[in-house]
Design a protein that fits this description.
mainly alpha
């Protein structure tokens, strides 16, 4: 039997969506004020923030950005023209193309990320609370005591007597 979604869960999900959208919109504004487009910032962040063991291949970046390969290539072309990134051949497989941050891109990314972290630290508690409200099982109003499950009814084995 499916559990009914509670009004509190609807409110928590709506609040979470609102807060995420507001955080992203504020971020887009911060990024634009720094002279970047949001996709450009996301590319720089994806390159710098790859997990250990991942290479900054176009395929990995496209995956991290949820973009098609050709769209990622076009984005990298534009970023390369501004001297934010550069392409280099892979060390082990020369056919593989890796994308690296250039100092100009690194500096710009650091400025934006610094502001984003400050914004998140000052407003992030509401996001955490909204997520927490969805992760907690819904509370049921106090009512008649529920029957104990078979595991709860089991008696614990008697304790061994301690020697005197």
């Amino acid at each position: 039997m499916r559990r009914q979604i509670t009004p509190d869960e609807y409110r928590a999900l709506a609040e979470l969506r609102y807060l995420i959208r507001r955080f992203l919109q504020e971020g887009d504004s911060t990024v634009r004020n720094a002279g970047l487009e949001p996709q450009q910032y996301l590319l720089l962040l994806a390159i710098r923030g790859l997990p250990p063991g991942y290479q900054s291949t176009i395929r990995n970046l496209a995956d991290r950005l949820s973009l098609r390969h050709h769209s990622t290539v076009e984005l990298i072309d534009r970023m390369e023209a501004h001297a934010y990134v550069k392409r280099t051949p892979g060390r082990e497989d020369r056919r593989q193309v890796l994308v690296q941050l250039l100092p100009r891109g690194e500096k710009l990314l650091e400025q934006v990320v610094e502001k984003r972290i400050i914004e998140l630290r000052s407003n992030g508690r509401a996001l955490v609370d909204a997520i927490g409200a969805l992760l907690e099982p819904p509370r049921h109003p106090a009512g008649p005591a529920m029957k104990k499950s078979r595991n709860q009814r089991r008696r614990t084995p008697p304790r061994a007597k301690e020697p005197h």
